Amino acid sequence: MIAEAFRPLWQEAGFDQPTQIQDAVYQPLKNDVNVVGLAPTGSGKTLAFGLPLLEKLVPGDGIQLLILSPSQELAIQTRNVLQPYAKAVGLRVIGVTGNANVKRQKEQLKTHPEVVVGTAGRLVELANAGTLKLHTLQTIVVDEADELLREPGLDQVRALTMASPADTQMGFFSATASPMLSELDKWFGIEAQTIDVRKTDHTQGVVQHLFVQTDNAYRVEWLRALAHLDDFQALVFFNNNGQLEKVASILHHQAVKYAVLSRNDRSINRANALAAFRKHKVTLLLVTDLAGRGLDLKKLPAVVNYGAPKRAEAYIHRAGRTGRMGNSGYVVTLGDDHDRRDLKKLVPQYDLRRGYLVDGKLTTEAPKAKPKVETPKAAPSVEQSTFERKPRKAAPTPKPVVKHKKKRLRDRKNKGKHVAK
Fold first, then answer.
1. Angstrom distance (rounded) from CA 208 to CA 57
2. Please, are residues 152 and 119 in contact by the beta-carbon 8 Å criterion?
3. Gene Ontology cellular component (predicted)?
4. Which pLDDT score is estimated for 372?
5. Where does 31-163 have alpha helices with state H?
6. Cα–Cα distance between 370 and 325 in angstroms, integer?
């Protein structure tokens, strides 16, 4: 199935046979069928849509493949994954993202790449300016479709499709379904074949889902404790950017190696933070759902939810950052009893257990309470208790009674009798 030009690179990436999603979508994509591909995180979705679509492209024929990502990190990651395969067949891939130098991106587009990977907002901006020309486009792929097809992404994706040829093939890929994926005829005027391998794909390794009960005031202390475990490294997810920045300011004064992937940061700062995490120079990478969506981090030991997510899709995608390609991992959620009850209702498919730190290790076994040691009173010996009696205390010696009254009376009578005349 894998083209001979791609096979050596594909095997170097750790594959010896196609994953279920790679096998299932290969022919439909090559045959210009519109596809909705649903597969677990870490199951090789990028190569699942990338390889069959690259096979169809003709070098020098203009932009033929457009891949949309919800974040600049995922866009650059996808570009980096596909570049070696594209180069093997004489194709060029470029990345176009927001918060980056738009002048430089326009110069890159002048080199006539066949594949453009980017964030929807910047691509719309370039298309409206006439710099991104889509008249030669064959296929649009919407990666992390459940996220991108929410506002404002939906309008941006629709704008790009309307600027493309009417017969442009479309592919939508995600680890979670959304109502939008069953309404593609309404929003894009197309019919699509849905290929769902989530229940039968077993590429994910063993992942333990732990809930650590703690008050809000002690969550940062838990992060600090986890960061000092041996061989520990984690993506730490926050429900909003304000909370992320507050925790980052606290960790700044503690002995924790961390980096921040914030939407408010410059592109170069975000790239440096991700690079430092991948090189294990930092232990914790603080992210929000959008910044962490789709990131492929090899053998990531753990994901930490600083706050329990409010949507099941968010938990699923967060959890999918660990346990990839057969590796094991942990998903640790911090919260109180109320959070725990809500989370169990939100994602009942996961075996959520209480988590503890015992002897410097994460475990589901509660620490054993230390027995109270009481010093026993010495028991009397058999001889003493049976045959001996405790000696009685001696009665105090009574003080002598001095009869002062008579003596004083005699002294008064004799007063002055012995005085010499």
1. 42
2. no
3. cytosol
4. 59
5. 45-56, 72-88, 102-109, 120-128, 145-148, 153-162
6. 41
- The two structure tokens encoding residue 289: 């759902």
Q: Which is nearest to 39 in space by CA: 273, 366, 325, 233?
A: 325
pLDDT of residue 368: 80
Q: How many CB atoms lie within 10 A of CB 200?
A: 10
Residue 90 predicted with pLDDT over 90? yes
Do domains 7-196 and 207-363 share one topology? The answer is yes
CA-wise closest residue to 323 among 40, 8, 20, 35: 40
pLDDT band, very low/low/confident/very high, at 125 (cuts 50, 70, 90): very high
Looking at per-residue confidence, does 271 or 211 come out higher? Answer: 211
Single out the residue of 333, 325, 367 nearest to residue 350, CA to CA. 333
- Each residue of 55-70: pLDDT tens digit? 999 999 999 999 999 9
Confidence of residue 360 (pLDDT cuts 50, 70, 90): confident
Q: Which amino acid is at 187?
A: W
User: What distance in Å separates the CA atoms of residue 183 and residue 181, rounded to the nearest whole number?
Assistant: 5
Q: Using alpha carbons, list the distances in angstroms from residue 381 to 268, 312, 378.
A: 82, 70, 9
For 378, the token pair is: 């010495």
- Distance (Å, rounded) from C-alpha 394 to C-alpha 61? 120
Give the whole-angstrom CA distance, residue 217 versus residue 232: 23
Comparing C-alpha atoms, which of 239, 216, 364, 217 is closest to residue 308? 239
Fold of the CATH domain 207-363: Rossmann fold (3.40.50)
Homologous superfamily of domain range 7-196: P-loop containing nucleotide triphosphate hydrolases (3.40.50.300)
Angle formed by the axes of helices 312-319 and 337-346, nearest 10°: 90
CB 82 within 8 A of CB 93: yes
45-56 and 72-88 are packed helices; what angle lies between their axes, rounded to 10 degrees?
Answer: 50
pLDDT for 376 beyond 60: no
Higher pLDDT, 76 or 416: 76
Two tokens, residue 65: 């493949």
Q: Hey, where are the domains in the chain?
A: 7-196, 207-363
CB neighbourhood size of 337 (10 A): 9
Cα 251 to Cα 254: distance, rounded to the nearest angstrom: 5
- Kindly report whether the global pTM for this prediction surpasses the value 0.90: no
Alpha-carbon torsion, ordered 261, 262, 267, 269, to 10 deg: -60
